[in-house]
Specification:
The termini are far apart. With about 270 residues, the chain is α+β, with helices and mostly antiparallel strands. The protein is about 20% helix and about 30% strand.
């Protein structure tokens, strides 16, 4: 019987002239610069679209927050057993900070008069249920963040204007953000017209007129870039409160890209 040779300990040498593997090398400076240049081009082309998409998403989210706040008026009225006021504005200046608040206020005194109008709630008066602030100028620790510019507004015609219909205390055509706008949701779930209280001791304060509004009360919500013309297509949300309290927010786009935007060109995109 032939003995088999054990080849496991034999050294296998490559034949003379066989190619040897080269060592791995890194990228050259020219290659790295080319990659950076390509990434820069992609960022310039796509970055603007990403920024616009982010603004559209923030606008939709913020309008949704306001819609939810308005919707809560009826549920809070039922839960607490008191009428609830919704108040938009006026502009608040606190030192160097400025903001436009939207309040949800419970009529704790149940006299259908907004006792806390334009001031901090006090003992025995109405109660602040919730608040949403549109920051105009923020200060760290007060409202918003230092140096942050205004992002949202309540009119596509100006960042310091309010476009609304059927809210109280607003003369026809008034767009002054220093004028508060108020509605009341009563215990039957009706949106009630509000006017100044004529009798003492609360003369001049917003109070229910005892009349239900005859059509939806509307409020525009949009982005400041719509006002300056850099938001394409021009987009706004029309928030409506119906006479029987329910809230709808409709996104609208304008086919006109020139300022001022034509009212007839605002078209519903969804409901």
């Amino acid at each position: 019987m032939k003995r088999q040779k054990n080849h496991s300990t034999l050294l296998i040498r490559p034949p003379l002239g066989a190619p040897r593997p080269h060592a791995r090398r890194g990228f050259s400076l020219v290659e790295l610069m080319a990659v950076v240049f390509i990434i820069g081009i992609i960022f310039i082309i796509g970055g603007g679209q990403i920024s616009k998409a982010w603004k559209r998403q923030k606008l939709q989210s913020a309008s949704g927050d306001i819609k939810v706040l308005f919707q809560r008026a009826y549920s809070e009225a039922q839960r607490r057993g008191i009428p609830v006021f919704v108040q938009v504005g006026p502009l608040v200046t606190a030192g160097a900070s400025r903001y436009l608040p939207i309040y949800l206020i419970g009529d704790q005194t149940q006299d259908e008069v907004l006792d806390t109008f334009q001031k901090v709630p006090a003992a025995g008066e109405d109660i602040l249920i919730d608040q949403y602030n549109i920051i105009v100028r923020g200060l760290s620790g007060t409202m918003g963040v230092t140096g942050v510019d205004q992002e949202f507004c309540l009119s596509e015609d100006g960042t310091n204007l309010v476009k609304s219909t059927l809210w109280s205390d607003e003369p026809p055509g008034s767009t002054d953000w220093n004028v508060a706008r108020v509605l009341m949701c009563d215990l039957q779930g009706r949106a009630m017209s509000v006017g100044p209280k004529p009798a003492a001791p609360k003369v001049g304060l917003p109070a229910s007129t005892g009349r239900q509004i005859g059509a939806p009360a509307t409020l525009v919500f949009t982005h400041v870039d719509v006002v300056n013309g850099s938001f394409a297509p021009p987009t706004r949300f029309l928030i409506s409160i119906n006479p029987v309290w329910s809230v709808r927010s409709v996104r609208q786009v304008n086919s006109s890209y020139s300022l001022p935007y034509a009212l007839a060109n605002w078209m519903n995109q969804d409901g």
